[in-house]
């Protein structure tokens, strides 16, 4: 199936594995929450039990350096992409309200990003993630 849109998640390559997985999970939920139209139908197992809907298109995960995260952030704003962000200080918080408070005091034009997810038209997302390689 071909999609007009693309979802890309960029994760700071120097993070510990558990941090990469944690940030990726949080960012994926942010994109799903902002793009309910992109969710597929519920999964039903052979016993008829309902399971949660998943995003109906691939999400590619990329390793990124700090400058690549900042580029994706700037391009995401310029091109009005759907954005989900995770900053370093969020590792020391314990809940959503504290995460939002931590993000709100970051420099608006250059937050200390450790991850960003973007969704939008393919050409715009490709511009935001230019130079990033898929996460190994």
What does this structure look like?
The protein is an alpha+beta fold and 136 residues long. The chain has one domain: Bit1. It is built from 4 helices and 7 strands; from the N terminus they run βαβββαβαβαβ. The chain has helices at 17-34, 66-78, 96-104, 122-128, and strands at 5-12, 43-44, 50-51, 59-64, 82-87, 113-121, 133-134. The strands form 2 sheets. Strands 5-6-1-4-7 form a 5-stranded mixed beta sheet, with helices on both faces. A hairpin with a 5-residue loop joins strand 2 and strand 3. The chain is globular and about 50 Å long. The two termini are 25 Å apart. 31% of the residues are buried. The mean pLDDT is 96.
Give me a quick take on this structure.
This protein has 136 residues and is an alpha+beta fold.
Characteristic terms for this protein:
alpha+beta; 136 residues; Bit1; five-stranded mixed beta sheet; 4 helices; globular; two-stranded antiparallel sheet
Q: Bin the helical content.
A: 25-40%
The number of distinct structural domains comes to 1
Q: Could you name the CATH topology?
A: Bit1
Strand content: 25-35%
Going by CATH, what is the homologous superfamily?
Bit1
The average pLDDT score comes to 96
The run of helices and strands is: EHEEEHEHEHE
* Structural class designation: alpha+beta
Which architecture name does CATH use? 3-Layer(aba) Sandwich
Q: In whole angstroms, how far apart are the ends?
A: 25 Å
What oligomeric state do these chains adopt? single chain
Number of strands: 7
């Amino acid at each position: 199936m071909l999609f007009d849109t693309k979802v890309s998640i960029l994760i700071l390559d120097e993070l510990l594995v558990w941090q990469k997985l944690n940030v990726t999970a949080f960012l994926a939920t942010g994109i799903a929450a902002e793009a309910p139209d992109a969710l597929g139908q519920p999964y039903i197992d052979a016993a008829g039990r309902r399971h949660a809907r998943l995003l109906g298109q691939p999400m590619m995960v990329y390793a990124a350096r700090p400058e690549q995260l900042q580029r994706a952030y700037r391009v995401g704003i310029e091109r009005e992409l759907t954005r989900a962000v995770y900053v370093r200080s969020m590792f020391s918080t314990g809940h959503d309200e504290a995460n939002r408070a931590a993000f709100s005091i970051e420099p608006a034009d250059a937050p200390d990003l450790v991850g960003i997810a973007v969704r939008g038209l393919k050409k715009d997302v490709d511009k935001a993630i230019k130079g990033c390689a898929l996460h190994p």
